[in-house]
Structure formats: structure tokens, C-alpha cells
Amino acid sequence: MPEFRLLRIDLWRQKAREERIPDKVLRRFLGGRGLGAYLALREIPPHADPLGPENRLYILTGPLTGTVDASQGIEAGRYHVVAKSPLTGVLGESNAGGRFGPWLRFSGYDGIVLENVSEEPVYISIIDGEVRFHDARHLWGRGVFYTEDRVREELGRTGPDEGAVLAIGPAGERLVKFASLINNKGRAAGRTGMGAVMGSKRVKAIYVYGTRDVGKEIVDRQGFMEAARKLHEKIASNPVSKSLNAYGTAVLVNIINEHGALPTRNWNRGTFDKAAEISGETMAEKYLVDRRGCWGCTIRCGRITKVDDPVFYTSVGKGPEYETIFAVGSNLEIGDLRPIIKINHVLNDLGMDTISFGNTVGTLMEIYEKAVNGELPKEKAEKLMKLLHDVKPLWGNAHAVIQLAYKTAYRDGIGDYLAEGAVSFAEEFGCPECPAHARRLELPAYDPRAINSMALAYATSNRGGCHLRAYAVSFDVLGVPVKKDPLAIDMEKVRLVKFQQDFFATIDSMIVCKFNTFSTEPADYVPLLSAAMGWDDFTEEELLTIGERIYNVERLFGVREGIYKDTLSPKVLEKPLPDGPAKGRTAKEALEAYLPEYYRLRGWVDGKPTRETLHRLGLDEFAYIVS
Amino acid sequence: MPEFRLLRIDLWRQKAREERIPDKVLRRFLGGRGLGAYLALREIPPHADPLGPENRLYILTGPLTGTVDASQGIEAGRYHVVAKSPLTGVLGESNAGGRFGPWLRFSGYDGIVLENVSEEPVYISIIDGEVRFHDARHLWGRGVFYTEDRVREELGRTGPDEGAVLAIGPAGERLVKFASLINNKGRAAGRTGMGAVMGSKRVKAIYVYGTRDVGKEIVDRQGFMEAARKLHEKIASNPVSKSLNAYGTAVLVNIINEHGALPTRNWNRGTFDKAAEISGETMAEKYLVDRRGCWGCTIRCGRITKVDDPVFYTSVGKGPEYETIFAVGSNLEIGDLRPIIKINHVLNDLGMDTISFGNTVGTLMEIYEKAVNGELPKEKAEKLMKLLHDVKPLWGNAHAVIQLAYKTAYRDGIGDYLAEGAVSFAEEFGCPECPAHARRLELPAYDPRAINSMALAYATSNRGGCHLRAYAVSFDVLGVPVKKDPLAIDMEKVRLVKFQQDFFATIDSMIVCKFNTFSTEPADYVPLLSAAMGWDDFTEEELLTIGERIYNVERLFGVREGIYKDTLSPKVLEKPLPDGPAKGRTAKEALEAYLPEYYRLRGWVDGKPTRETLHRLGLDEFAYIVS
Fold first, then answer.
1. CB contacts, 8 Å: A346 with chain B
2. Which of A275, B18, B21, B113 gives 20 to 30 Å between its CA and that of A441?
3. What's the whole-model pTM score?
4. Where are the alpha helices (DSSP H) in A99-251?
5. Is the complex ipTM more than 0.85?
6. Nearest-by-Cβ selection for A349 from B170, B314, B390
7. What is the pLDDT of residue B1?
8. Residue to substitute from A412, A414, A416, interface B, most B β-carbons within 10 A
9. Which of A316, A391, A416 is closest, CB to CB, to B313?
């Protein structure tokens, strides 16, 4: 920075060229998620096939990425991926840690765009500005772990911290709609099927390495380091940061279960009787062997777990995160961390999003139960049973889940249907009311019937059901910045959801880790950006306006596709929870109460930004979309 | 017949043309295996790459195939596959039952040759003489079961007995060296990697159907039916036939275990303490739901088993055969039929030979044990452990075996090495003495140290270690035609081995089931062939000469490749058995005693036919190979 070096890679022609994104664009979108949304809306044609050559995959860093190492880390080790999603049909995007983001910057570029499609499978290396294409036919079909090892070997750079590899597994190659991108053998850009987009372009992996010193490009180095030090201290001293270090995200299992919001048995219950057995505390006691942070991170929430059980054997592996413990644990009634750790490992290796996979298998288990009970149309039940010739998807059957992971990644038999995601699967087999989702993206691990602000957060999330666009759990459960009653209708919570959506959009664009938001505020980032970019008159208000601008651009992508209704699937909207503190509740009351106020705050009508709102945010060029 | 209609399919040009093989060739080679060996030796160039376009895949029936239905069956429902083997480098060939053979004849052709390679994956339908090529890109990567269902659906022929589908699974596509061809969802042409050859040609499946009445082409219909009736009565009344009906081939588990010849723990023992739990008797008691015969069969040795256990769930599935129970049971110390049935099902679906797979995994388990005990070179051990990041190949760990099946079929990580077969795997990881094999083909379920005629049978088998070229168990254990002592050196047994090799070659060429040989003799087939082909002066001696001719042609293929040394791997040749009735014995003594006499009977010198022998058999055209 201040200019953003974007590497455009044309896969048809195997040509790469650098484009410099000027400061005036960065001051409107920062980088990362914001820049990706802006470029995607301009460059991806309306109604493009997400798996066709006209889709583009943006892999972007931000102005803070890779600037401060772990010694006084500000958690700026992440990158963001953006493309039209094959799962949802709207803008897909996903954010991941590890080491790929910083190494991408060190390689000489701040971002990459994959354009068109390659004729044959390739992997790409970017080393000190030099882009090379390598035949990857021998890697096609292989898992992520093997691929990373082979790519490093072939490039002669086998040191684990010598550059970084971003790869897809067989799931991405086979266009599984929720395929992920994995770097560092376990850090996933998991949601919305970005792995399938890379697979459709026949890019197996990207290796990045270089010696660029991004710190030297900071305009006011001294001011920047001073601001970073202050931010670092705030983060390091915060109790949530410490708790994340001690137990990882899995610390949430017991807390969310106590609130009756731990989705269990495919969202048919909100509490799991074996929650304690799959908690972060149990993981720390029995299976934790190390903690791992991303590049430049002091929180170090990453788990290294080891199961040395012959059946569920996995040696040292990353995770599992809280979301995975829900998705392939409580949601499938698997109350044992050994298979959860194993399944997590297998899903990382195959390159699939654990949240979507767990929800899809949960949907299968529910539909299978209906078929057994004679509650499914005969023809649907027969088709299902035929496909289940060798696997029995009973609640709690971890072995079936492992087999289904392979079948899904390779699209064999029943897996070919599971690979389409929970909503398509449920439609195919006659139970559209079975999956819990918003905008066809399967919901993460917080039941909105028991944490009612999440109903609004999920419904209005531009990429579909997501806990990372607004993390209302923060105030409804954890008391940050204020403690709210998760079951009360409280219009102040609408303002907080909108605030988080805008703030988080800037977090994903600068880019820092969202866990920073437990301990920091927008104002904390103003001096950092100001120093990094030379924006002397930059203000907190301008930062939040950037966040709002990004949120509107993402929304416009959905409006242009005709997908912008803010709602939830009947599973949580209409079906009452049968257990726990929220027994008898649905998400409908809260969503209906919150949505009008949310639209008022946003300046939207029926989910669409008005021309006035776009004008206020400097987005007149996109007014045609709402006219 | 009397002319053999051979369909030559050029996959490059997507053209098919019929060639008529004249009677004079059939009278020298019959059909099936014999004709295949003859054509392969003429048409496949020396040192051809088995997975390159110059290899050819012959799928052939014989003059008896499909002639008499099950009402008075003569077990003529089989077909034979021939090609250069990617596993052994010599002539590969394999024989299978089910329904594909007869339906191939009914479709209008007696055999198919796949030539060259297809640009894109295809499947082929042959319906009443009409050959069509269908795009199979959507089936690439799919399992055998799904593929068969989809092919039938797409062709609008969903009746289970309406034609037949021969398919490869993902293993064949990915050129796993022991990939099989599967028809009827569980009948395998398993050995020598014929599935990889079909995969290399990018043919996913072949569907055959038609209304040709092969009975009408029989020269002397009345004489034929009379001879068939006599043969049928002999077979139906025989106690071995009845025993095969009652217990399937698995009846052998207890018998062979009692002889100390049941390979256990990768050939490190000859008895298994859990043999009774994996026996045919236990299978019949607990898991058998039906018996199934091939087309035209009254023995009906095929098992339909059902396991309704959540972990090892498989609904109705074929097998397992005795060989599979050894390979993935005793050989891996898995003493429970539930996982064995499950693994068998998975291997059929993925399209892999159970014998080679079980031996290869057994080799891995032994090498892994060595690595753990520090008995492997450090660099080899490290490489192995890295590849085993998510699976622990301990003896008896059925879950690991299931995962390894997927990894092997898709060539992921450790599976990429397992896919090369036991010998290559063992060489790669520093234990060439670990696998039991002959000519790089992994040995089947009879330890030659405890049944000493099998030492000669395995060593001299042209396709490599095989129990179906000479089944010496027949006299050494079962007493057919005479009872011999399995541990005694007895030169009469050499003559019996040679006799079986020649007789069996005709069995595989007519084609009937080898189980007929427990109850019938060469003379029984003379009137059948005579009536079918109009060979009025045909004799038993001529039939056995045909068998000898075939055996020599197969041998010449190996000689031309430079691979014709008749020996066994050190595992059984030099390492003494530690347990059972044959404790302390190796296979060396018997093999050294038998081999000179065998060569004398064959008219071979050091494993090579002499010019005189070739002249006697009318094979002068191939004399150049031994000159």
C-alpha cells in the first residue's frame, strides 16, 4: 500500500499481469472483502454461472495484512476470498487465517484474481513477483495434505514456514457446492463453496513466497507501530482473548448449550445431553497437544489435537473449532470428541466446509428417519434407500459420517446429492422443511430461536446464514459490549446488529481477525489505517461508512440476481424449540419485530437499498440495479 | 458359433467393426481365454505399455456360453478378459460369472476387443448388434453400483435381468494396478488389473442386451442337449456342488485353517484363532439372506449377505467369497464377518480386487509394525509415518481398512502407493521380503508351505500367483480326483498340476465354471463341443492338447517380455511357517523337487518352451520368441 498490487491471472491464456488499484478506491473499500465485493459487482456479469469461466475468484489481503509479526501481533494474518457462490447464487465470500495472507503479500502482490478457466489442471507458484504455471494433473484427485507436501517438494521449498500453499481437495475439483479452500493443512476459507469455484477453474493449488517487506511501504512507520502497540495491549489483556487461548472456540459448547441454543439432531433440539463430553474443556483435558496461532497472532486460538485411538486415529491435526463440533457433533448426535476430531481431519483433507457438510448430513439423517417411519413419499423413499445401499445414516453413527465424507467429496452415489448442499438435497428427497438455512447457506451453531438477535443477523446476512457478519452472541450471551437478554425483544439490538455488520465488514477488509472485536472498537483502527495509508484526516465515522458501503455493495449483488429476501427457513422460523430455556419459541416473532427497524436504519425498502442510500454512500454507479 | 463374431471397437475413432474368427482358429483355441491369449500374443506389441493405447482389452465368451439355461444348467454363464497386465507386466487375464457373458452373446457378438483409447470418458451400449458410444464424463469418479443404475436408467432398461452392465469403479479410472471389472454389482473379473486397462482406455462401462438365440446356432441341437443333460446330472448330484450351494466358497475357511494353510497376519501364520467366526458356517447362520447363481447355473454358490449393524451397515450385497475372507479377514487379523462383508462391498463398489488389496494392506500393516519397532530404515519410516497422518494400520483395525480402500481407489496420500500393488509398495518402503507373491501377483488363500503342490501351481502360473490355473487343493486337501498328502513330496502331484493347468485352460475357453471340475472330466465336454461346433472327430486328447497349447501361448507372452522365472517370493519360499501342521516348513523343498519334472512333462527348458514343443502344438509362428 498505498497502491494495491492486484495480480490478474488469465487461466485460458496462462498469462498474468499486475494492476494497481489506486488510493481513491482503497479509501472507499480498504482491501480484502470490501475491494472484492466492489470488483465482483463490476466484473462478474449478472446471472453468470458460478462454475463457468465468467465467474472470478478474488483472493485478497488488506492494508494491515502481514505488517506486524507475532511479537506484538494485531492479528493481521488473514486473507479474504470472493466469488459468486455456487451454493447460494449470491456473492460468496470467506475469510481464513493461517499464513497464506501474509506470504501472498511478501510474494509481491496484495491480491490475486483468477479469471477464465484452465484447460488442464494446474497449480500456480508466485515467488518474488514471478508467476509460473505447473501441470497439476498428477495432483488431481488428491487430498489437501498430500497436495501441500507435493507442491512444496516439487518447488524445493519444504520448510513448513517457507511460504504457504492454498489448495483444494477432491471436493473442490468435483464442484461440491460447499467445497473449501485450505491453507496450512487445516485453515479453511470454508463457506459458500469458494473451493468449487477454484476447482471449476482447474486450479489445484497456489504457492506464494517472497521477500517483500510490506512494513517498508507503510507511510508513517513510527505512528503505525505506536498504534499497533496500543491495539496489541488491548487485545492481549482481554479476558475473551485469554479464554480463546486456553480453550479455543470450543469454549462455547457448554455456554451455548446452557442457553438452549446448541443445535442438536439437525435443529430438532437446542440442548445436547453429551455437550460436556464434546466441550473445549474436555478437548483441553484429553486431546490437546499444542496451541497454534496464525501469522502475527498472540491470541493463538488454534488447537492442535491428537487422537491415538485405533478406530478414529488421527495424528497431529488442526481443530476442531466450535462450529465443527456442532456440525458433525451435536447436530448429528455424536457425543464423542474422537470421531469429531477424525471427521474434521478428513473434511479438511477432502476440502469441504464442516458447517455445510454437517448440516447436509443432519438433513439426510432426518429424512432417512422419515423414510424408515413411512413419512416420506414412497418414490422418494425408494430412491433414497437404493442410494443408501452401503451406509446407514443413523443419529450418532460416526462411521457412516466418515464414509459419507468420502462419497460426497468424490460425488459417488448418495454423495452426488449431498454435494449439492442441504437445501438442494432436501428438495430432491421431498423434505424442503428439513434443513435450517438462510439464503440457502446452512446455519452455523447458534439457534436463533434461543438467541433472538441471531434471527436478524442470519436473515440479513448478505452471504446467507452466517455468524460472522454480525455476531449477536457477543451481546446476547457474552455481554460484549453490553449484556442483553437473548429472549427479549429489544430494539437496541437491531442497532447493534447493524453496527457489527458494518464494523465487521471493515475488519474483513483491513484485514484483522474478528476476535479483535471482543476487545477493540472502530476508533482503535483509525490511527493504524491513517498511518499505513497516509490518510491524515481519516475518522471513525468514515471507517464505519466504508463498512456500510461494503455491506450495500454486497447486497446489490444479491438484488441484481433477484435474491434479497431477508428470511429464515421454516425449521427455525416456524417450528418451536422443544427443549431448554427457549422451549416453545420460534424465530418468527423476533425477526418480524426487528426487520422494519433494521430497514429503517439501513435506508432500505423490502431488502433493497434506495437510490438515496446509494447516493449517500457514493454508489451512484450501481443505482441502475435498484431502479 | 461355429464362427466367432468378434467386435473390434476403436476408441480413438469411435468406430466398431465385426470380424469373424474362422473355425480353424477356434478348433485350436476354442474361445474365451484361449482365443484371448492367441490374439493378445499376435496383436499386442512386445514391451507395450499396459496402460497405453497399444494394449488391447479382450472381453470374450466361448462356444458354450449362454447355451443352456439354469433349468438344466452346465454353468456356462461366464466370460473371460485378457490384456497385458499393468500389475505383473505379463499377460493378464481374469474370468467372471454373473450375467454379462451370456448377454454379450445375446447382443449379437461373441467377444469384444477395446483398441486404442478414448479422448473423453465413454460408456458403450451394444443392443442387438448396434454399437453406440455415450458420454460418460458424468459417471467418471462414481462407484460401480451407481454407475450400473445410471447406465440402465439412461438406456431405459431398468429391469435387473434386462441385459447386463460391466463397469469399472474409481479405482479403474485412476489406474490402480489391481482394479477390477465388475458386472452385476458384485461379480468381479478381479485379478491382474484388467479394470485399470479399461480405465486407461477411458471406458467406464459396457452395456449389452439383445435377442440373439445362440441355441439356434448349435450344429447338432439334439446331441448337444443330450450331452448337456448328462453333464448337468453329474454336477447337480455331486457332494462338492451341494456343499458350495449350502455354504458358498467360504466353506473352505475351517478346512484350510485345520490344514494350517489359512494365511494370517500377512502370511506370518498359517492358522487364525478366529477362523470359526469368519467361516461359511457362521456366515450361513448369521448373515446369509439368499443364494445366487450365475446365468445358467444350478450350483448357486453366490451368497447374498446382509449386515444390519449401524457401523458396518451394508444392505443386500454379494459375497464375500473365501478369498476375500482370507484377504481382508485372517490376513489382516480381522476376526468378524461384519467388517469383512462391509469391506467386500466397498471394494466391489470402488472396483478393486480383494485378494491384491488385502495382501497390499497386509504388507502395509507389517511394514508399519516394523516402522514402529524401529526395524525400518529411518528415511523410509519417516516417509511412511508422514503418509499415515490420519490412519493407523494396526492388525485387526477394520476401520483403517475401509478408509484405506477409499484412499487407494482415489490414490490419495498413502493410497497412491498402495495402488501400485503389494510388491511395488514393499519395494518403495524398504521391505521387499514382506509380500507373498509370484510374478508380482499377490498370492491367494492357500499357503504353499502347508499345501505343497500349491508351490508348483503358484510358481508356474503364467499370470502370477493364482489358485485358478491349477487348484492343487483339490487333491491335496479335498481328495478330488484322489486324496494326496499336502506335506508329502509326491511326483504324481506334478502330473496332476499340469493336467489341471491344461484342463482348466479349456474350461476357461469353452467357457464353463471351474467348479464343474469337481464333478466332471475332460471327456464329458467332448460331445458338447462336438455337437456345438460340428466337430465330429473331436477327442478328449485333442481337448487337452488345446489346453496345453493355450498354456504355452500364455507362457510365450511372458518369455517375450523376459518374465518367465518360475519361483515364489521369499515370504513363502524361505521363511518357515511358525504354526500349525506345517510348522517349520517352507515352500522351497517342494518347488525344487517338482520343477524339473514339471519342465520335463511340459517340454520346457528353464521355463521356456522348446522349438520342438511349439512345433508339436502347432505354434511354429511363435518360434521366433524362443529362438
1. 390
2. A275
3. 0.87
4. 100-106, 144-155, 170-173, 194-200, 221-236, 239-247
5. no
6. B390
7. 60
8. A412
9. A391
